[in-house]
Specification:
This protein has helices at residues 7-37, 44-59, 61-66, 70-81, 91-109, 120-136, 141-145, 152-168, 170-179, 181-193, 197-211, 215-223, 226-241. The chain is mainly α and 242 residues long. The longest helix has 31 residues, at 7-37. The protein has a single domain, classed as Leucine-rich Repeat Variant, CATH 1.25.10. Helix 2 packs parallel to helix 5 and helix 6 packs across helix 8 (152-168). The chain contains 13 helices and no strands. The radius of gyration is 20 Å and the shape is globular.
């Protein structure tokens, strides 16, 4: 018969978790050093560091966030890796590291499902990360520009990150979207013309989130016939599932 965990078991578990957290923090700090010291964000060294940091963000987000430079460094990498920044030009240079950066930031924010009182730290971390990303990405404008890039996976990762940020602080994203007609046009173009399911579904999810509370965005969506497009996609999805 199994016995309930003893006090010593609980203490041992806490010690192991603390040690792992310290190790992860040290690893994150080292990876950030590699990223900031390398002048090229697309070099093999930077790509490897970014891939490792993304994996660490998935496994130990709190330890990465505790590394003071982590979130600002990743947010600035989004700008540096975006075509037109003067740092990268070819798609095979920027696409993969940019996707890794967006995914890492998404892991650091989390999925926003923390509900218990013990998860107060998780909610606070999500809010803090979202605020830092917005601040270092031109109040969200840089993330919206990614919607016009010619790479479906990057578009999808950008929309996924925007949703995570929006759940924490919708106002900056609303303001950035309303101030940039090109970003809204890119989003609507993807919804109405993209034939890739996961990208199109990402558009639907983001638009449903954007229109849930903002009346100005609701009006734009209605005027441009986006509602009909969303219903058509949802109906198509229901038929494919059924």
């Amino acid at each position: 018969m199994a016995h309930p965990p003893s006090f010593l078991d609980a203490v041992s578990k806490n010690i192991i978790e603390s040690a792992n957290s310290i190790d992860a923090h040290i690893d994150a700090d080292s990876l950030i050093d590699r990223l900031t010291l390398d002048p090229s964000p697309t070099s093999t060294r930077s790509r490897n560091a970014l891939s490792e940091l993304k994996d660490l963000a998935r496994r130990a987000p709190a330890a990465v966030v505790a590394t003071e430079r982590a979130v600002p460094t990743l947010a600035r990498l989004v700008i540096r890796l975006t075509p037109g920044s003067g740092v990268v030009q070819e798609e095979d240079e920027w696409a993969e590291p940019l996707q890794d950066t967006l995914e890492a930031l998404r892991y650091l924010i989390g999925d926003g499902r923390a509900t218990d009182s013990k998860d107060d730290a998780v909610r606070m971390r999500a809010r803090d990360v979202a605020e830092l990303v917005v601040r270092h990405a031109e109040n969200g404008k840089q993330l919206l520009r990614l919607l016009s890039l010619p790479d479906a996976s990057t578009q999808h990762d950008a929309m996924a990150l925007l949703q995570r940020i929006y759940l924490q602080m919708p106002r900056p994203i609303d303001d950035a979207l309303l101030a940039d007609p090109l970003a809204f046009n890119s989003l609507m173009h993807l919804l109405q013309n993209c034939q890739i399911d996961f990208v199109r579904n990402g558009c639907v999810s983001l638009l449903l989130l954007l229109t849930a509370t903002n009346e100005e965005i609701q009006k734009i969506v209605v005027v441009n016939g986006v509602v009909e497009s969303i219903f058509a996609i949802l109906k198509e999805e229901d038929l494919s599932v059924g």
